[in-house]
């Protein structure tokens, strides 16, 4: 652990940020899985709704620098192909 007071504070804020980002990452993965499960079940309405939520989560991940733009674009494209294929 650091000896300097400001560095101790910084270590605590880093932990808080890490925990917040971990929650957002989990939420994003869950949103993507919900789309995949709805497509597997061949439920067009549920897949479309889940796809909209996944898009929102992907956009939030991009804005908060959790995921890079190419990852977000690739996931959106992949999921839209699956949903439109129903």
Automatic annotation (TrEMBL):
An example molecular function term from Gene Ontology annotations: small ribosomal subunit rRNA binding
Pfam families the UniProt entry points to: Ribosomal_S20p
Keywords assigned: Ribonucleoprotein, Ribosomal protein, RNA-binding, rRNA-binding
GO annotation terms (biological process): translation
GO cellular component term, pick one: small ribosomal subunit
Record's function text: Binds directly to 16S ribosomal RNA.
Family according to the record: Belongs to the bacterial ribosomal protein bS20 family.
Name of this protein: Small ribosomal subunit protein bS20
């Amino acid at each position: 652990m650091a000896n300097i007071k400001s560095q101790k504070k910084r270590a605590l804020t880093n932990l808080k940020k890490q925990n917040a980002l971990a929650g957002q990452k989990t939420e994003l993965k869950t949103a993507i899985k919900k789309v995949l499960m709805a497509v597997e079940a061949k439920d067009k309405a549920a897949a479309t709704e889940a796809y909209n939520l996944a898009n929102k989560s992907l956009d939030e991940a991009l804005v908060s620098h959790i995921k890079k733009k190419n990852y977000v674009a690739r996931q959106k494209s992949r999921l839209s192909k699956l949903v439109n294929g129903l």
